[in-house]
Amino acid sequence: MSPMRIIILAVAAIAAVLAAFLVRNMASAPEPLTATETVERIVEVEVSQQKVLVAMNDLRAGSLITPDVLRWADWPEAAINPGYFTQEVAPDAMETISGSVVRVATYADEPILPQKIVQKGETGFMAALLKPGFRAAAVEISPESASAGFILPDDRVDVILTQEIEFTNGETLEERTVTSTILENVRILAIDQSFGDMDGIPTLTGSTATMELTSRQAELMALAARSGTVSLTLRSVADVDFNDGFALEKEGALDAVDQGGGVVVYRSGKPAAGGSL
């Protein structure tokens, strides 16, 4: 075979090898990437709403409901409980439940439910007004013994006991009128059957005042009412935080009550220790 023919065959073989290599690389090459575009679409859906009566701030159990602690708030119609007060069904609900008492704690922006409040006149209303551990004690009053009718529910008063005491002055048995404050900063729960906000009425004349007292103070009040005349003196609204807002039993208040209706021995114008006969 001539050299020229050998050269031609060698070139053809090399070309064939190169072609095969090129074909293999093209077959194994990855498919070209195509750019994809993600489109985010925001669809606005109109939700039907109603006005629902909610608490403007946290309401603890026993607190009095007034219009300034309530507001109307938008509420999804699908999430409305049948017990909610809605503006469509009960437009005057804010005024209707004013003066009610919170039975179960309600939090800010939580809808008001009838089951969580006690409305005036309902059973348990007075019990809902009381702080835990306190008692409701009633005492008879008159305009003369209750600041001429200017004492209203939720006011603070001092309780004064006036009684006639018999005492021995030497060999003579005499009588003396004794007056002493036995309780301070007592909260008035009700005057007769009137509770809470009195709708702007400046005076309220009643025959019975109901007060919030501890069990011991209630016993002292009952004893005082049997021993003499009980009077109430109105305290300034600035004194509401006196003794952290609780009623205070005056030191020696029980000793000031003539428990036995007997004779008290006075020495130097003061009752002697153990001087009751």
Q: List the helices and strands in order.
A: HEEHEEHEEEEEHEEHEE
What is the percent of helical residues?
10-25%
Q: Distance between termini?
A: 160 Å
Number of helices: 5
Over the alpha carbons, how many angstroms does the gyration radius reach? 43 Å
The number of distinct structural domains comes to: 2
On the 0-100 scale, what is the average pLDDT? 79
The major pleated sheet works out as:
9 strands, mixed
Instruction: Please count the beta strands (DSSP E, at least 2 residues each).
Output: 13
Poorly predicted parts: 197-203, 259-263, 273-277
Query: Which term fits the overall shape?
Result: rod-shaped
Range of strand content:
25-35%
Structural class: alpha+beta
Describe the structure.
It is built from 5 helices and 13 strands. A hairpin with a 2-residue loop joins β12 (263-267) and β13. The protein has 2 domains: 49-128, Alpha-Beta Complex (Type Iii Antifreeze Protein Isoform Hplc 12), CATH 3.90.1210.10; 132-276, no CATH class. Residues 197-203, 259-263 and 273-277 have low confidence and may be disordered. 23% of the residues are buried. The protein is α+β, with helices and mostly antiparallel strands and 277 residues long. The chain is rod-shaped. The protein is 19% helix and 31% strand. Strands 5, 6, 7, 8, 9, 10, 11, 12 and 13 form a 9-stranded mixed β-sheet that branches. A two-stranded antiparallel sheet has the order 1-2.
